[in-house]
Write a structure and sequence with these properties.
With 177 residues, this protein is an alpha+beta fold. The protein has helices at 20-29, 52-67, 78-87, 111-120, 146-151, 165-176; strands spanning 2-7, 33-38, 43-47, 73-77, 100-105, 126-130, 133-137, 160-164. The strands form two sheets. It has a four-stranded antiparallel beta sheet with strand order 2-3-1-4, with helices on both faces. Helix 3 (78-87) crosses helix 6 (165-176).
């Protein structure tokens, strides 16, 4: 089964650096098939029959053992990622895919959390929640966005990692190739 690993917070600045060739080698050595990475920000497509939660736990252990980093790993199957792309609830307002973010969550957020996030949005920003994903449109970028600051913060209260729309769609294409 094709699965997508989303590693949280690696290769951002000088800390928690992991070279993608070494990551691919470590995953292959651990028995995973057809391992491919996308960009340097912790995106991996591989084949595994493990359940997504088991795969996430195994990869977190591997990252700690091989690289010495405690890294949260979120996993989506190829079909789950295809559903994320198919849904695309903000397609009617998005003008630049690099300012359109999908935040992948370990668990579904509460309605109260979603309401609190919506309240942080600037007048042009939009947020849509669907299952374990939050779709956020940041037309003015993320640098000063209070919504983005909360989505990217541990204060969110749920393990999460975000990818822009271009990365999301390219990961699906990689899973399909």
């Amino acid at each position: 089964m094709r699965q997508i690993l989303l590693l949280r917070g690696i290769n951002l600045g000088p800390h928690r650096r992991i070279a993608m060739p070494k990551l691919r080698d470590a995953l292959r050595d651990a028995g995973f098939g057809d391992v491919r990475t996308y960009l340097q920000s912790g995106n991996v497509v591989l084949s595994s029959d493990a359940a997504p939660a088991e795969l996430a736990a195994a990869c977190q252990r591997l990252l700690a053992d091989c690289f010495g980093h405690e890294v949260d790993v979120l996993v989506r199957t190829r079909d789950e990622l295809a559903a994320v792309v198919q849904l695309d609830p903000l397609r009617s307002v998005v003008a630049d895919p690099k300012r359109y973010q999908v935040t992948f969550l370990r668990e579904q957020p509460s309605a109260e959390l979603v309401q609190a996030l919506v309240a942080l949005a600037s007048p042009g920003e939009r947020l849509a929640a669907a299952g374990r994903e939050l779709y956020a449109w940041h037309p003015d970028g993320i640098a000063r966005s209070r919504l983005w600051a909360r989505l990217a913060s541990p204060a969110l209260g749920i393990v999460a990692t975000a990818r822009n729309w271009t990365t999301v769609t390219n990961l699906l294409a990689l899973a399909d190739s």
